[in-house]
Amino acid sequence: AAYLTRLYREIAMAAAMFELARERKSGQIKLVVSNPADAGHTQIQLLHPDMPYLVDTLSLVLAGRGIGVQLLGHPVLELTRDKAGRLQAVGQGPRESTMLVEIDRQPGQELAGLQQELEQALALLRAANADAGAMREQILAAAEQVSPASHGQTVASEAQQFLRWVADQHFVFMGSRHYHVQGKGDKARLVADEGSGLGLMRGKPRAPSRPVAGLAAEGLHQRGSLDAPVIVTKTNARSQIHRGGYMDYIGVLSFDKEGRITGEQRFVGLFANSAWGV
């Protein structure tokens, strides 16, 4: 009896996922959070273009709410669809993630909030994934712009090597934006270049402009040293995708001929496991 019950349950889950995958228009994300009437758990069904960190991101949201996962199925399928998004064949075509997760039973009034939080996290993940290649190219371009004339050959070379190493699969790029310096002296501030944001930093910046004096490297600059073209620190914002914790921050500074800071190309994300030898 237990075997038949389990078999029936597995068939029902497979049928539910097939029904979800039967039709998906281009760009559509299908996410359903529900409380099945005949089960002691809450169910999450997801149909999403395949990309890295989907499971990690979903798990991060659940962990943040203290919700336990009882079952997680995540087949990645190659699916062919017609122009209307109707499923035509399995085994060829773009890769789609089909995910079914059973979690601790949640009160009915909590389901809408959970779904909204999942949707927001997945939207951030898609933005970061879509712009990851462009951000990698940006950091490689920033490496080329580090000038030996301003920083000396040794420091410039080390900075360039570090930035190239970062770009070589050692950093999960989540957002970037370019800033220029506006004002002089104590009034100098870093102001975001409109339209330069990528990934999580798309759109208008929410934070106010930042004093140049607040840069981690500015203390060195004020003492006359230009040996800090690259800033590496932590942000005060926690990651909402991939894995938890405060995001890493890499800033590449630009300088004029007098050694004054003229701008910053800023990157946020997380150092990859490979950066720690994992």
- Rg over CA atoms, rounded to whole Å, is 23 Å
Class by SSE composition: alpha+beta
How many β-strands, per DSSP?
A: 12
Series of H and E elements: HEEHEEEHHHEEEEHEEE
**What is the number of helices?**
6
Low-confidence stretches: 218-226
Major β-sheet profile:
7 strands, antiparallel
What's the overall average pLDDT, rounded? 87
Describe, in plain words, how this protein is organized in 3D.
This protein is an alpha+beta fold and 278 residues long. 32% of the residues lie in helices and 33% in strands. The protein is built from 6 helices and 12 strands. Strands 6, 7, 8, 9, 10, 11 and 12 form a 7-stranded antiparallel sheet that branches. Strands 1, 2, 3, 4 and 5 form a 5-stranded antiparallel sheet that branches. Strand 1 and strand 2 form a beta hairpin. Helix 3 packs antiparallel against helix 5. The longest helix has 35 residues.
Descriptive terms for the model:
seven-stranded antiparallel sheet; 278 residues; alpha+beta; five-stranded antiparallel sheet; elongated
Topology:
Elements: H1 2-21, E1 30-34, E2 41-49, H2 54-64, E3 69-73, E4 76-81, E5 87-104, H3 111-145, H4 148-151, H5 153-167, E6 171-182, E7 189-192, E8 198-199, E9 210-211, H6 218-222, E10 230-238, E11 246-255, E12 261-271
Antiparallel strand pairs: 1-2, 2-5, 3-5, 4-5, 6-7, 6-8, 6-12, 7-9, 10-11, 11-12
Helix pairs in contact: 2-3, 3-5
